[in-house]
């Protein structure tokens, strides 16, 4: 019988009773064939690989990752709490040493959900990785965490949440934002002034295949991880880079995904996108699971796999190689201040416009971070969704310095008295408190 | 009158049950090298008493297939495996004549790469030259498309005494399990059929015309004729017989725990809402997982013959078996000896038990009665821990809908039923350890044979329909039909139940009381390019294990 070299817990939750709409890519059917394939392959009969059911995330878990307006109950359904709970279960498996590695093979996905949540964008409502990361910090005291997002779409939500966080390294490899949703993820997006270089974006040309992905992994991602020295590595394992995916233009294969997974060696993986539900997901998920468990994957491939068809063009190879060299240099010696934004006294300020494609909401934000020079800095966000009243969000981060703690409370108090806001929310991580007020 | 026989590892038990209750019983030592002689012995004691003609049914639980597989006393099987890409099928390699034949069927049952007939012919030739005459042909996703297996059967049939196909067992997915199940089935086919012939001859020689059924690991029966084709289904039926015995003797309605404490092990089973829980995947034998439906049981190495030892001042019972107990002439004090010392039991030479415990205690600066107390406590503590663990694993089993995750039933045992040799002696200690109520039914000593006698046929059917491809299959029942685009879940549910009943009739075991229940029914809209192109429908229905209601009253006791 087969035996896993690394014990693996798979939190499998296909949400067979949940869909955004009947024909939406996020529909009941999405993980059906994956389940068929994993069962037929006997994945859970491999010694050392076990299937688990999700925990259920609670409102306080969500509060650590998101400012939700008007509140958690209004924007989040049970499906999101289960899916985030699936990621938390994966974290719990690893932290409590029930398994060396864990894969949250759950939906709905989360990596387009940003710090402030008014609704659903890019099929995502709450960022399940972020809920998990905050759980890892709050419950298990993990400090340095790296998230490597290999979904075809830029993980703009995760980027937004950790933009000002020097302790969370966020690396996203994705199809070039000039050619696909959400249109971001350029190399100059490096993080806020207190966390420059803790956000790294690696845009790839449409048509990039196994060779290009693995080149970027070896020459950019792995050296960055090496430098950052995270306590734990998380993979946002989107599968829409697959050559058969209907909504993207890449040429990645199941073999490529398995190889990437093996080389990356993440302790925790979380499913993100991937909409070739018959032709890709069953094989890619099998490849990822086996690779995480350290089981041979050489015989895993799509039935219609044709190496010629997914062969990467020469110009892509050349582009990828030259970009890789430039990127690593750029990321390891980033400029002092972000490209966009301005300094206003002790604050660094930027204006943001956020489009919620799934829920048709348009949000404007004014985001400020305190450049104290000692910690990540208290973050203050004024957010307005459509013509709704303005909301105020204040985050005093994990490990905040005393000045930032004081400032955060001050801004929150002043904001309540100013009559400028309808709702206000304060997350005080050092003080372990969350406050919501309706003004 | 119904006759039940349970051929166990140590004892062979038989009971005769009539409408008025338990009429006769017999117990004999099992002759492991000649199971039939043990059966003949108990039959010889019971049948003349009852009168052969009055016995209408003989249900037999036998370890024959289990022993043959575990001890490797089986014949070589030519195994044809069509895997395609995925986990390397070398992982399931079994025996000397295992060969992977190129070809591939995908999850929807589409053939994505053709079967390599030349390779198949070559393997068939090699098997023939090696004198192999039983075969197993198994394809990945064969429950979704049986073509490859059927083709292989045609190819090998002329040179075979018996060919077994993977999809005949179940529609359940699990390629490796299917390989093991089919290979074991072919491997025990001949030895089981010889045994079946002998059982029939023996029954005839005693003047019986009773219908003979064989017990399965899921607590149900199959007719002898069917067991000749599916002998692997008879493995591990012993623990199931015991569980069905408790079900017959006690009217179990609430969530409950069953403890069957034997010589070497304690087997734990769970009841939810009055029915025993089945393992969702299938039985494991010889370290290989199979598709054989089985009750969900857990076995721990604690029984009457488990040796008592002290490791770093900690008293342990088992998992080593160094029995028999000293009161029965053994060399090492066991749990039974401890129960003797505590006065909970009065078995054999109790002075020997006292001497054994005193001697062991003296070596560790304690005294016999204290050691006995500690040993008994260690045993019940381990049993309780295992019960908690099993219950937790049942409640933690994965579910796939938000509804089930939030609203799913949890098993919370209210009662503990104890059976097996040391049951009575252990009951007081168990009652102290378990917060649930503890019961020891009166007929516990032969409950296994009662369970065998009263068990009813079980059957299950997994229907798979793909309306885009226009096909509906129930692999285990050999049903394959075309369906049109309007085929819906309700029709599928009705079809599955209808074919299941039809199959019972085909086996000539129609059971009007049989409750056909649908345990899974899912219909998924299949969407391609934003268009609804069909439905993927999956229905699972089954006839649950149960005991004959009329007789249940007759053997019932207050528990
Ligand atoms: Zn995506
Ligand atoms: Zn600060």
Q: In CATH's first tier, which class of the largest domain in chain B applies? A: Alpha Beta
CATH architecture type of the largest domain in chain A = 3-Layer(aba) Sandwich
Global structural class of chain B: alpha/beta
Assign the CATH class of the largest domain in chain A: Alpha Beta
**Strand order within the widest beta sheet of chain A:** 2-1-4-10-9-6-7-8
Q: Please name the CATH architecture of the largest domain in chain B.
A: 2-Layer Sandwich
Helix count of chain A, per DSSP?
Answer: 11
The helix/strand class of chain A is alpha/beta
**Biggest sheet, spatial arrangement of strands of chain B:** 3-2-1-4-11-12
Per the principal axes of the C-alpha atoms, what is the gross shape of chain B?
globular
- Give the biggest beta sheet of chain A: 8 strands, parallel
Shape of chain A: globular
Overall average residue pLDDT of chain B: 92
Number of strands of chain B: 27
Distance between the termini of chain B: 24 Å
Q: What ranges of chain B have pLDDT less than 50 throughout 5 or more consecutive residues?
A: none
What do you see in this structure?
The complex is a heterodimer of chains A (439) and B (559). With 439 residues, chain A is α/β, with parallel strands linked by helices. Chain A has 2 domains: 3-332, Histone deacetylase domain (Arginase, Chain A), CATH 3.40.800.20; 342-438, no CATH class. Helix content of chain A is 31%, strand content 24%. Chain A has 11 helices and 17 strands. Chain A has an 8-stranded parallel sheet with strand order 2-1-4-10-9-6-7-8, with helices on both faces. Chain A has a 7-stranded mixed sheet with strand order 11-12-13-14-15-16-17, with helices on one face. In chain A, a hairpin with a 2-residue loop joins strand 11 (342-344) and strand 12. Chain A is globular and about 65 Å long. Chain A starts with a strand and ends with a strand. By secondary structure, chain B is of the alpha/beta class. Chain B has 4 domains: 2-70 and 191-243, Nucleotidyltransferase, domain 5; 77-188, 3-Layer(aba) Sandwich (Rossmann fold), CATH 3.40.50; 251-440, 2-Layer Sandwich (Nucleotidyltransferase, domain 5), CATH 3.30.420.40; 459-543, no CATH class. Helices cover 35% and strands 26% of the residues of chain B. In chain B, the strands form 7 sheets. A 6-stranded mixed sheet of chain B has the order 3-2-1-4-11-12, sandwiched between helices. The longest helix of chain B is centred in the middle third of the chain and has 31 residues, at 175-205. The mean pLDDT of chain B is 92. At the A-B interface, helix 1, helix 4 and helix 9 of A face helix 5, strand 17, helix 11, strand 26 and strand 27 of B. The complex binds zinc ion (2 copies).
